[in-house]
Design goal:
With about 325 residues, the chain is mostly helical. The strands form 2 sheets. It has a two-stranded antiparallel ribbon. A hairpin with a 5-residue loop joins strand 3 and strand 4.
């Protein structure tokens, strides 16, 4: 790997392909051009993972120290023959001969400039399609953009919360798909309104992700004018729970998360929901914020009630 990396930076390449995995790996040269540590434990980070909490790794330069970075860049560029001017005598002789030959012959027309390289990613499409593609390359350095346009590291608490809610939405989708696979008269009677309820839950989880991602800009509030979670969605979950509980025998003991495949998967929904609720607590009730959070308390109530719903359905 070190030999491959040395070969890449001697050619002033930003990346190389890792043979065992086929992944694209950033070289030390690419990191130096950025100038600071991105905090992602990159293989060839020259800054010693300065932004990685608890790291004791030694770096060749200090993150953000432009003089050290420039000095190391100069060392790398000196490894490239085209950069340091150490062309061989035969190359210089050949160039001189070509120059004389060119001046003696009829001057050739200058070729037209190459067309600009097509921009790809996101709404610009890809190399092989003009349709929108899901990759934009904007997050390759470990940060991502919120709905408000502000960028945060991908391990920021907002993205942790959104990721947990997104995961919850996906596992709910698995339950919904399992029920649809059994679409017959018997299953319709057995599951009743559950498919429609799960669709509503997935829609609400999308809403929660959007609320968390809409971090207010300075002087601009993102608080909802009407709290639909408090007014509509939390009471609706309680109605569903009450209706199902009335049809069930009295609960007198703990339940193992098993039974049918659908029941077991609903327990997975319940536990992931609890995790999503825990990760949102620091967003709803931040320690260092004057005034209310942009995420209302009713969102936490909804997730708290939702885990009870999954338990009851299972």
């Amino acid at each position: 790997i070190e030999s491959l990396h040395l070969q890449a930076i001697s050619c002033l390449s930003d990346t190389y392909i890792d043979p065992p995995t086929g992944f694209t790996v950033l070289t030390e040269y690419a990191h130096l051009k950025r100038g600071v540590c991105c905090g992602n434990r990159c293989r060839h980070c020259p800054f010693g993972w300065e932004r990685v909490k608890g790291s004791t790794r030694e770096g060749s330069v200090k993150s953000g120290k432009s003089d050290q970075v420039k000095r190391r860049l100069a060392e790398i560029r000196a490894m490239n023959p085209r950069e340091d001017g150490n062309d061989s005598e035969s190359e210089r002789s050949s160039e001189s001969s070509d120059s004389r030959s060119s001046s003696e012959s009829e001057e050739e027309p200058t070729p037209p400039p190459a067309p600009p390289k097509k921009k790809t990613g996101g709404r610009h499409g890809g190399s092989l399609t003009s349709k929108n593609v899901p990759y934009t390359r904007g997050g390759d350095a470990g940060s991502s953009s919120l709905f408000s346009g502000q960028r945060r590291r991908k391990d920021h608490e907002l993205f942790e919360s959104m990721g947990d809610v997104d995961e919850l939405c996906s596992v709910v989708g698995v339950v919904h798909a399992l029920i649809l696979e059994k679409k017959d008269v018997a299953s319709t009677t057995k599951y009743g309104c559950l498919p429609d309820q799960l669709m509503d839950v997935m829609s609400r989880l999308f809403d929660i992700g959007a609320i968390v991602a809409r971090l207010p800009s300075e002087g601009v509030s993102c608080q909802m004018s009407e709290d639909e979670f408090e007014i509509l969605h939390v009471p609706l979950l309680e109605e569903w729970i009450d209706t199902m509980t009335d049809e069930l025998p009295q609960l007198t003991s703990f339940l193992l998360p098993s039974g049918s495949v659908v029941a077991a998967q609903l327990h997975v929904c319940r536990t992931v929901c609890r995790r999503a609720e825990r990760s949102l607590i620091s967003v709803i009730y931040p320690d260092n914020l004057d005034g209310p959070s942009h995420v209302p308390e009713s969102v936490g109530k909804y997730l708290n009630r939702l885990s009870d719903y999954f338990f009851t359905v299972s």
